[in-house]
Design brief:
Elements: H1 2-15, H2 27-37, H3 40-54, H4 56-64, H5 90-93, E1 97-104, E2 110-116, E3 123-130, E4 136-143, H6 149-159, H7 161-164
Antiparallel strand pairs: 1-2, 2-3, 3-4
Helix pairs in contact: 1-2
Length: 171
């Protein structure tokens, strides 16, 4: 619930016309953002992204089995544009990100929307599923600007630039 209330606060700030001057959050709002960045699901996203970028996902696939997707396209599957990590330029996805929002996934688990800290400020919807043994599994990683569109994502990133550039709030 705390996660949801902080996101509602961020959207209200955006809806009320707080734009290029940047947003100044209260200490309580800042703590909520820090808490949201420290949930296990966000740590799992960071770990998977790092493993993908370092080649560990491919190595694990070759030696232990498992899945290449969402790091790489999976076999003969026709994956939609924007739905694999490595189709994006590395310098767009190798930086830090802030958890932007969270919502339940219809197939179980949760989707986390993350926003990267550097231009072009890519936004991804990442499906995290908790397996029967309690492990967190990254099931999809899809570039999607959502209802706010590309311009809205850039505006949000610029509004929250102070927090996007602070490692307390990003992973």
């Amino acid at each position: 619930m705390k996660y949801l209330s902080s996101l509602i606060c961020l959207f209200l700030l955006m809806a009320n016309g707080v734009t290029s001057a940047g947003v100044v959050l209260t200490e309580q709002q800042q703590q909520t953002l820090i808490d949201n960045a420290n949930v296990p699901e966000i740590a799992a996203i960071r770990k998977y992204l790092d493993a993908c970028l370092s080649g560990q996902v491919l190595e694990d696939y070759q030696h232990k089995g498992g899945f290449l997707y969402p790091c790489y396209p999976e076999g003969n599957v026709n994956t939609p544009k924007g739905s694999t990590i490595l189709e994006h330029p590395i310098d767009h996805i190798d930086g830090r990100f802030i958890p932007y929002s969270r919502y339940d996934n219809d197939f179980g688990g949760e989707n986390y929307v993350i926003l990267f800290d550097e231009p072009p400020y890519l936004m991804f919807h990442v499906w995290i599923y908790k397996t029967a043994d309690g492990m967190l599994d990254v099931r999809s990683f899809i570039a999607n600007d959502g209802d706010i569109g590309r311009g809205g994502v850039v505006e949000a990133a610029l509004m929250f630039k102070e927090y996007l550039s602070d490692p307390r709030f990003t992973r």
